[in-house]
Amino acid sequence: MDILSAHATAHPTKAALICGDDVLTYAGLEERACRVANVFAELGLQAGDRVATMSFNSIASFEVSSGLRKLGAVGVPVNFRLQGEELAYILNDSGAGAVCVGPELVERIEAIRHLLTGNPVLLTLANAPTPEGWLSLEGRMRAVSPLIPAPPSEPGTGATMIYTSGTTGHPKGAYRPQGLPVEQVLQTIELFTLRTDDVHLMAGPGYHSAVGFFASLTLACGATIVIMPRFEPELALQLIERHRVTTTFMAPILLQRIVDLPPEVQERYDLSSMRVIVVAAAPCPFSLKQRVIERFGEVLWEFYGATETGINTVLRPEEQLRKPGSVGRAAPGHEILLLDDEGRPVPEGTPGEVWVKNAWLATYYNRPDATAQAMRDGYLSVGDVAYRDAEGYYYICDRKVDMIISGGVNIYPAEIESCLAGHPAVADVAVIGVPDDQWGEAVKALVVLRPSARATEEELIDWCRQRIADYKRPRSVDFVDELPRDQAGKLLKRQIRQRYWATSGRWI
Question: Is 433 in a helix, a strand, or coil?
Fold first, then answer.
């Protein structure tokens, strides 16, 4: 069954998408998605072909993704911060037969056009300029039939491919040829208590797997999405009040920016409609959770997962303050193993690499070697490390690649970052290992202070000394103006480490 067609028939005049003053109903989205599908069919694309989209959040990007689903083609959302060879790599590696580009990004693609292999069709979205050799998707849509194309025969929700952030080497395409089983989608909707009458704020970038997934769940419910092309904290509050928003997904950094607004700004808006705030994508400090709950009430959900493995654990609103630092228990239908380096299960309270088995698992597109390396007896790992308590709650320590080994002892930076984030003067923090002749690596903290706040290196080290084991405390602190993060809010640890390791002759 085509869920978009069903919603368009059941409630044709209901708003599906809102962006600024523009509103597209379910009937309107259905018609324009059919036109998109027919445009790509005329261009020679068919089920299984890949189409890349690089755009800020927009109604047009939803029209494209909905049309590709009707055609059975594979949508490949592309990080709009990429450029040059890193951008060309993803377009080439995905084998994209077409590339759809938003108005602000056409020049970015035109600049690497000579690097593209396979001669993909280049299409502009909305009112973007159309350079020589490009096509206007809007112009082509006006010339094709609005009738529903023949539906693809594959089961599931439609093929997806999302590129991982590439913390090591080139990014890899996490590929699901049939998308997700429908029963998994329905189970997730029920798990997070999503409803037909919801209004969902799409605050983060759509190329991020969780942002796109929760937007897709909203459309699957027949609910309404309010689109933010790019995130602005006060605008988010304005939209929540104006549209009586009930649900959203945000990375911790976005929630941080909201609760860091002056109290008089926050109090200007009625936020009482909000009932589900989902946080993930990066560690969420306990102090931040406390501030969010104080502002919005007991509406905060957290999950742990990955692009390749989906949503693996869930921490419900009533558990947030009772289980500090936890990301919850295993989600229904998910099996989780914590294994040591020899593949043996670790006891409760002992960190181990996280291995997940479920119906969500993706493979790496055209990378059977990488898929095999990440798999063990049907379980997949992305290199995260966690421990489990006696009640079955999981605590993510860190990524295995970020782990610090000092004097032969494993130290997980996320725990130290969470401790420092609780200091009232700290706005942002990253903890890394730096070269040390005696210990191999020494723990260093890079700290961004809040405006007008003051703190010394010794004060912050002492703060940690009182709260975590002494071997984990930073041996030094560097104060910086800003820490590099990707659009999803993840710290770019490799970039941070580079200046400290570049002249050491080694990287571990």
Answer: strand
Phi/psi at 361 (nearest 5 deg)? -55, 135
How far apart are the C-alpha atoms of 55 and 372, rounded to whole Å?
33
pLDDT digits (tens, 9 = 90+) for 332-371: 999 999 999 899 999 999 999 999 999 989 999 999 999 9
The pairing of strands 121-124 and 98-101 is parallel
C-beta pairs of 149-155 under 8 Å, 24+ apart in sequence: 149/34, 149/37, 149/38, 149/41, 149/70, 149/71, 151/2, 151/70, 151/72, 152/47, 152/70, 152/71, 152/72, 153/72, 154/47, 154/72, 154/178, 155/181, 155/182
Residue environment code for 463-499, b if the CB has 16+ CB neighbours within 10 A, otherwise e: bbeeebeeebbbeebeeeeebebbbbbbbebbebbee
Q: Which of 12, 22, 108 is nearest to 61 (CA)?
A: 22
What Rg value do the Cα atoms of the chain yield, rounded? Answer: 23
Report how far Cα 345 is from the mean position of its chain's Cα atoms: 29
Can you give the three-state secondary structure of 406-422, one letter per residue? ECCEEECHHHHHHHHHC
Whole-angstrom distance, CA of residue 162 vs CA of residue 85 = 18
All structural domains of the chain, each given as residue ranges with its CATH number in brackets, are 24-153 (3.40.50.980), 185-400 (3.40.50.12780), 403-501 (3.30.300.30)
CA geometry: angle at 450 spanning 447 and 454, to 5°?
80
- What secondary structure letter does DSSP report for 179? -
Secondary structure, 3-state, 139-164: HHHHCCCCCCCCCCCCCCCCCEEEEC
Distance CA 313, CA 251 (A): 16
pTM, whole model, 2 decimals? 0.84
- The Cα-based distances of 2 to 5, 66, 76, 80, 219 in angstroms read 5, 10, 20, 29, 12
Of 145 and 409, which is predicted with more confidence? Answer: 145
Any residues with CB less than 8 A from the CB of 169 and at least 6 apart, and which? Answer: none
Take residue 447 and report the two structure tokens written for it.
Answer: 């700290």
Give every CB contact of residue 392 below 8 A, 6+ residues apart in sequence. Answer: 329, 330
Do residues 484 and 167 lie in contact, with contact meaning Cβ atoms separated by under 8 Å? no
The pair of structure tokens assigned to 236 is: 């988010």
Evaluate whether 34 touches 68 at the Cβ level (below 8 Å).
no
